[in-house]
Design the sequence.
């Protein structure tokens, strides 16, 4: 077998040393009636060559971005990954090591965590960051738990409909068996309505969760939302798009107490949804309520600067049921990738990437809306994605037809928003060229013509 | 060698990435976005060049021990070899470049793989339903407990307690708390097994779930497993199996066959997904039939030869994260299972247990192993005698091992064993390595205590001041410049 | 610019230290009239994202093995490359280092060279190996030069027509301005004719170059060729296929004095022909005439075992025009890949790979020859490739038609062998499945029908 | 850490790769192959497992210094940063998985890239024809000399000599010898330039080619370049430019414009292809129009928008290797040239020269640089004074630099400078690194000579016995067991 060492001679020598007659004897502590007594019903072993052939065959039944032109977004984006990120991310010493329990044998990982935390605080304008969580949605749920604990308000948390539906679902699941209610408030024109929010938020409210730019791609009036939230003594949790911070204000700058994000876009692939990177930063005062690993700087016995895991009294192996959370690892490898990615971009690269997303997406929206069939669902300014309304209300046919021509043209919104059943969400990253955007427009226009024909027959 | 911080390498005007020129008509940002929402300048990230980045991170990497460079017998973490073919598989554009919201007809290969993974996990655990959504073992625990809660709520039962043995992973009680339960500790005996009397005294109709790690964190198979399950079931409770130690029992025995109602897997442990310096992993769960309606959605279904996502579970708990799950980790696990097959997986466990027992036989004369002469995939030795006799602690030994080129075992866990050293060699190590490790361990116990207190000696860093780190937290570059 | 550090401030500080007013001044030693005085006429710089898009576009205009089913051989083969080879080959410390001039800073590379040499001697059954040359053909030419020098015979070298035509061409080019003549002898039935060889070889002959299995895939009577060669006091140079040594006798076992091979098949891609790996091994007595780097074991000042470049008195930086050759590097990275590959295969893996090539290629040949249009051009036993004769003599049409159906079906031989204009060379590696072979047979059969139809009209 | 040999890790029965079962009807090997040709058992390769292989080679890798980990100012080797995007490019299946004999219609993208490379190399050198076939710089030298020989033969001229300055790379005279020429050494002056009087005395009608490295191995631009070329041309000879030092002059001056008739490139130096621990590189050559008919075949031609291989050069020298050339290296060079563009390439040279001059300005007070205050991309310092005064040699300094985390410069080359230390920082290093290097160099010269004689001190190996290695060669495992 591929990864075993033990030759028959080794086995014999080892069994002798153990004082066991056979390997089977080693399993004697398992009651016989609990043993399986048959082979697992799994397909027989493949050699590496066969595995490769098999996986290629499976992969060929998928249409990845690169084969189709991807305009899908909604929290996962086809951003460019520089080659350096893969080079560093595939270093054995990073990806085959584990949580730095022995600091002396893990200074590489620990320094990366420290650098990651530093970059995230710079990115968010907040004081502290943990070393990452699972993904954006679960990070949002953890932020809600933090806010409840910090405010001592167990009444409710407020989530506008412009927050990603899966993030809302995740928060709801996390809170299902706890005392706190999740109150969903409707939006007006694609953004939070200050009046509705003002009415909803009260002294029982632990937090308001604001996505900026929001699920529809619209830029919210974050300052106003913060004002209303703070007036009621609640905390503002911002869900942000890291790429947007090349042009938009940082969560810390508009008053967010906790900021969370989906960070896969910082150098990790879409990978059909995971693994991803949950970013979380917060004000200093909240740090001891923060879930997840945190690295800190200290000195060693020789007085040398070094790094360790710190504030572990928050964690399960010490606090058990009193831990801040049950999260016991970070997404180390993806935090590393994000660290390399942000270093590679630098401030100018981040700004240029954000600017390209902004310009290209707005160009795409305008071009689409030149066609009478299409309009923007919302008038608010957008960053890199936008909602298109199909006046013919045949979104599925339209997108299917675009797919046949090689475009993953957008995400139908009816599944989450019945009132937007005639709408789809389009995302445009820096990777999309003018030719691809023009191709999309032309395809949707033609598709529209083709689809329209049978409708008139 | 470079151990500066990125921010120290930064100089204004340096840069690594260059972006394409904008190829669409460009408009003034002020025309596109409200001024109050925009930043006048981007975040002050460091300004460095690409060669700096590469040298910085490559040199940092060499400051880690890792499975690819060192023996890494970190107990409970299953630091086995991470096959390179798995990495190649996960990097295939046909898997890596799929958007999670693509139409099903464009991801039939992906769904086929995920469907098979559901099937494989079910077969290996003996539990008939599976959700691939949870992102990590602890996340799987939480998800399963939420499933259990939904089930009891649906039954109209109001149960508030979760039982957890005292030698369980800390995540068990923490997950119970997060799921809204009260965590009740069940004692274990000096043999390391569940104290049946204590269990009996704590088991009542309030108990929703008993969480159990079997083989336990001591590397022992719970002899009363069936009895425990029967007793919990008799009171209407459910058994949750912490699957951290599945590496010991693949194809040999199945949690579903002992009465477990739910379990999670750690594919990054058992099925060789890499540990990534602390993640990402994955935490798929399997459950019995009656809990299946409560699983998170979507689930992959197969009809004829077509695969589809089933979102239509009316009783679902909803979701515990965005999108499908940690697919990249599952692709690696799929590659592992397919290249092993049923016989290969059984051999994994046989060799993991053989290696652990062999190492136990070599170590027990040096460091007593309180829980006997045999183990499953791991064992817990104790430096307690050595501490009393010579003042040498488990920590001293752990640190000194680094000098000899071995990563340390897990120390001070479980809490039930004083001066615990939890050793899990895994199946992917050789007898020669185990022999060398045992010899070094022996040599260390003969060394001068003073030498050990100051160990490690060969590393760039030795015995960091953790108290200072926690009391005066310096968590960012900004805090660093404030601190100085 | 991407890879420069110097900020304007840095530049100014550096120029001050130098005592130069500007960077231009640093080029003052170049006479003004020799300066270009204009920009190079090259396309403008691309960003990494644009480069990626551009290269994908270029790559999409190629049909690699994997998209088409590859039955091409002739010295370059579609063998499987295990993932470990890529993992090790992409380690920064291996691929961004250079020739181990400082042994203390290069023990990794030096030990790999030593291990490579050891594996190659085991593989060939000869005493010593260098640390690699450019490719199989140039290694063959270097072997001929060695033989001339070792025997002191400057009259001729003998190359049968069954030696790869490009290897013969390379040898001819290398010898063009030297005294030695390259005598090409015809083959009989696809292999060396002992009588013709006996007549050609004489006391002026430095060497006979025998390819085993030969260019046509046929297994030569190496023992007989060796006997004839040695009888005349000439050296036998064997050109071997590394993979064949899982089933065939080793060059050293049948008497070769020098053995050379194309080694890209040991873990490196086809890459449209390069870089490749020139393998060379020889008898101990010839080692000081061997070209290229050689690593040796020694001890350091502390008495520790270690490795160094050795026998450098053969080389150019010391011997200059008296060096054994002008080759001054090896193909370090590909020698590393070959070392990893051979370790990964081990003796059983090599045997099984060879056996699969043998079985599958013979199956393919048989299946093809069931069709009346096709026959084997030669009756001799083959290892992994074979020559098919198209009785209809329409090889180009046939292969074109197969290509249209996704098969790189074979290599037409007319370009090199006018008398074999109705023949093509087919190679079958362990990667080819029965389904692919059956597909090839069915395609060539159908192609044959389709092609034949207009011929009968 | 693992520094055993693979053969020492071997145990009978271990294995890493497993192959598929044979899926065609299997026949007895004895039926397929003559017994006298077959081996009864495969070669006795080591028997090891995949985890062993990975740990072995990963640990070996860390015993190297490399550009990605250390400053590597190895003169004449241009150890610049190797962009990771180049590696990604070369690994694309659309390039990596092409068979060299595929029909032209299936490789149009590949041929387009290679055609452009011919054009780019021509433009950069100012020479109008190009062959991409040679596999390395020295191979390019040989190829060009064979081209020259074919040209003279075609002219009916019988020229037997090649002139080579005494500070040239050793490959120059070696290549001349391999091409059938007699190599004649031309002296250089104490300034490091070609001794014009010596040249005049050696230049006659027998001279086929003068090989010249410009900028020279001393990092100096030859002031008489035009004059030298004119004189050689006047006697009917050709000028060969050793292109090893092109990194100094990209877009600034072109060999073709000074009278060079032929040159090679080292794309692994100038255009950032990695050095791979000593190869593979590539050695494309460019030549003047009248030499074009003699180039190796094939050449890529473009007609309309179709690319084709031209094998039809009746006067070609033939070929110097199999297949097209070291395409993988050329793909990397293509990526480098395309991401730099004309301005970027010029900046490469400007920064390479700026860095070298800056380092020179910092070093010259510590180690005299005999050939003046200025240089191009590299300079040669001398430890000769230090040797006389304190007994410290260039080798001592080189070895001691390793202790400080710097690779050594090239030492004892060129032979014309005593105790030579040839430093080439390249453009991809920072002022901070150059400053740190200069400071360490200064510190070393202040250190005790005895300490330096025993350097390096921090490496696993120190001062190997090279004489023993050469006198009692141990070149294989087999020899090792014989020696023991």
Sequence:
């Amino acid at each position: 077998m591929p990864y075993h060492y033990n030759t028959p001679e080794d086995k014999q020598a080892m069994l002798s040393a153990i004082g066991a007659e056979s390997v089977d004897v080693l399993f004697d502590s398992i009651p016989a009636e609990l043993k399986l007594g048959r082979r697992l019903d799994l397909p027989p072993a493949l050699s590496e060559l066969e595995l490769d052939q098999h996986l290629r065959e499976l992969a060929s039944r998928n249409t990845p971005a690169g084969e189709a032109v991807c305009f899908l977004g909604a929290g996962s984006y086809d951003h460019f990954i520089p080659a350096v990120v893969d080079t560093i991310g595939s270093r054995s010493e990073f990806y085959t090591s584990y949580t730095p329990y022995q600091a002396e044998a893990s200074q590489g990982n620990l320094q990366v965590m420290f650098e990651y935390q530093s970059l995230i605080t710079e990115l968010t304008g907040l004081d502290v960051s943990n070393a990452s969580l699972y993904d954006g949605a679960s990070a949002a749920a953890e932020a809600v738990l933090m806010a409840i604990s910090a405010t001592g308000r167990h009444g409710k948390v407020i989530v506008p409909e412009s927050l990603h539906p899966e993030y809302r679902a995740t928060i709801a699941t996390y809170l299902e068996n706890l005392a706190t209610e999740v109150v969903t408030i409707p939006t007006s024109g694609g953004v939070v309505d200050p009046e509705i929010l003002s009415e909803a938020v009260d002294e029982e409210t632990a937090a308001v969760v604001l996505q900026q730019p929001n699920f529809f791609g619209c830029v919210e009036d974050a300052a106003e939302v913060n004002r209303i939230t703070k007036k009621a003594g609640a905390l503002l949790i911002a869900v942000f798009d890291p790429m947007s911070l090349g042009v938009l204000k940082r969560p810390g700058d508009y008053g967010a107490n906790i900021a969370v994000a989906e960070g896969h876009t910082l150098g990790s692939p879409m990978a059909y949804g995971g693994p991803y990177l949950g970013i979380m930063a917060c004000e200093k005062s909240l740090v001891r309520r923060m879930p997840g690993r945190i690295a800190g700087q200290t000195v060693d016995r020789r007085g040398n600067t070094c790094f360790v895991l710190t504030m572990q009294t928050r964690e399960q192996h010490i606090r058990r049921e009193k831990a801040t959370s049950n999260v016991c690892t970070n997404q180390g490898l993806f935090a590393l990738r994000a660290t390399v990615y942000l270093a590679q971009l630098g401030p100018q690269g981040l700004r240029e990437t954000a600017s390209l997303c902004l310009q290209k997406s707005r160009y795409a929206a305008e071009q689409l809306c030149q066609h009478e069939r299409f309009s923007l669902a919302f008038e608010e300014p957008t960053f890199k994605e936008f909602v298109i309304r199909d006046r013919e209300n045949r979104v599925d046919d339209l997108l299917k037809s675009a797919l046949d021509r090689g475009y993953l043209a957008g995400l139908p919104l009816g599944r989450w928003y019945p009132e937007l059943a005639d709408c789809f969400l389009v995302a445009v990253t820096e990777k999309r060229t003018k030719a691809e955007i023009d191709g999309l427009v032309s395809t949707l226009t033609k598709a529209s013509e083709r689809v329209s024909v049978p409708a008139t027959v | 060698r470079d151990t500066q911080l990125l921010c120290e390498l930064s100089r204004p005007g340096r840069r690594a990435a260059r972006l394409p020129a904008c190829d669409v008509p460009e408009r003034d940002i002020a025309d596109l976005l409200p001024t109050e929402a925009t930043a006048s300048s981007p975040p002050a990230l460091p300004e460095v060049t690409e060669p700096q980045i590469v040298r910085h991170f490559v040199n940092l990497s060499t400051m880690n021990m890792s499975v690819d460079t060192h023996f890494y017998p970190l107990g409970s973490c299953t630091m086995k070899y991470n096959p390179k073919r798995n990495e190649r598989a996960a990097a295939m554009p046909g898997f890596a470049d799929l958007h999670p919201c693509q139409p099903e007809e464009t991801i039939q290969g992906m769904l086929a793989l995920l469907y098979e993974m559901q099937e494989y996990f079910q077969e290996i655990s003996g539990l008939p339903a599976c959700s691939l959504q949870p992102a990590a073992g602890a996340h799987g625990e939480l998800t399963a407990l939420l499933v259990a809660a939904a089930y009891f709520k649906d039954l109209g039962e109001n149960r508030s307690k979760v039982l957890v043995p005292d030698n369980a992973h800390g995540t068990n009680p923490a997950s119970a708390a997060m799921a809204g339960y009260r965590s009740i500790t069940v004692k274990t005996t000096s043999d390391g097994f569940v104290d049946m009397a204590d269990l009996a005294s704590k088991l009542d109709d309030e108990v929703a779930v008993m969480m159990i790690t079997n083989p336990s964190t001591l590397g022992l198979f719970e002899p009363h497993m069936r009895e425990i399950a029967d007793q919990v079931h008799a009171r209407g409770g459910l058994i949750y199996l912490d699957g951290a130690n599945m590496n010991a029992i693949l194809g040999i025995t199945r949690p579903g066959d002992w009465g477990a109602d739910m379990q999670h897997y750690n594919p990054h442990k058992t099925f060789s997904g890499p540990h990534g310096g602390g993640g990402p992993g994955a935490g798929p769960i399997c459950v019995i039939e009656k809990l299946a309606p409560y699983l998170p959605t979507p689930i992959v279904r197969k009809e004829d030869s077509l695969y589809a996502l089933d979102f239509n579970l009316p009783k679902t708990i909803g979701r515990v994260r965005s999108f499908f799950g940690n697919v990249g980790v599952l692709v690696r696990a799929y590659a592992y299972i397919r290249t092993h097959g049923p016989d290969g997986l059984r051999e994994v466990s046989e060799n993991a247990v053989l290696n652990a027992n062999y190492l136990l036989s070599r170590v027990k004369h040096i460091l007593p192993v309180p829980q006997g002469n045999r183990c499953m995939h791991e064992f817990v030795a104790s430096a307690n005698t050595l501490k009393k006799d010579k003042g040498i602690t488990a920590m001293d030994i752990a640190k000194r091992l680094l000098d000899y080129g071995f990563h340390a075992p897990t120390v001070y866990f479980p809490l039930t064993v004083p001066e615990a050293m939890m050793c899990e060699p895994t199946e992917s190590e050789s007898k020669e390595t185990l022999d060398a490790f045992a010899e070094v361990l022996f040599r260390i116990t003969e060394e001068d205590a003073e030498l050990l207190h100051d160990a490690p000696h060969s590393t760039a860093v030795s015995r960091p001041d953790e108290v200072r780190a926690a009391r005066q937290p310096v968590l960012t570059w900004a805090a660093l410049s404030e601190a100085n």
